[in-house]
Amino acid sequence: MIRALTTLFFALAASLALAIPKAGDPAPAFKLQDQTGAWRSLEDYRGKWVVLYFYPKDNTPGCTTQACELRDDIFAFRRANAVILGVSVDAVDSKEAFAKEHSLPFPVLSDSKTTVTKAYGSLTSYPQYKLFDIARRDTFIIDPQGRIAKRFDNVNADGHSKMVLAELTKLQQ
User: Which among 63, 123, 70 is positioned nearest to 94, based on CA atoms?
Assistant: First the structure.
């Protein structure tokens, strides 16, 4: 019985690991509301590079650092024909306040049902902070054809924007 359960556990874990998108895979499609309530989908950005970043929570120190660094580098991303999309599981009204307070020039998307965050393998929990079902700090560079070109897992917010820009430049050469 224990052996059968162990085998089942490892088979399930392996199938879940295969479901997490990696470089070269098609990026999972999505349609989410941004801070203004407008609907945004991945398909809207076909033909452009997309920097899709997941973050745990609006207006927390690390998430604010990450968003503001991306904001400060917006012109470099635009020169690279790239758009930035932020995603967390916070509600649209939280996104509105966050974007306004920090003058974010890019959409921040609400995945309050966690569907997209799960599809990208970025849903996690931090029980030590009593945070359950939130986005892990992951970033995906999606190419103009809609494929994942690079995946960054569990990143450090500080300095991440420059790292993504450097990788984007490398991918475009």
Answer: 63
Q: What is the pLDDT of residues 132-158, one digit of tens each?
A: 899 999 999 999 999 999 999 999 999
- The C-alpha atoms of residue 143 and residue 158 are separated, in whole angstroms, by 24
Catalytic residue from among 32, 51, 63, 70: 63
The residues facing 25 across adjacent strands are none
Distance from the Cα of residue 149 to its chain's centroid:
14
Instruction: Please check whether the domain covering 2-172 is classified as CATH 3.40.30.10.
Output: yes
Catalytic residue status for 63: yes
State the Cα–Cα distance between residues 66 and 80, nearest whole angstrom: 19
What is the total residue count of the chain?
A: 173
123, two tokens: 């849903």
How far apart are the C-alpha atoms of 101 and 90, rounded to whole Å?
16
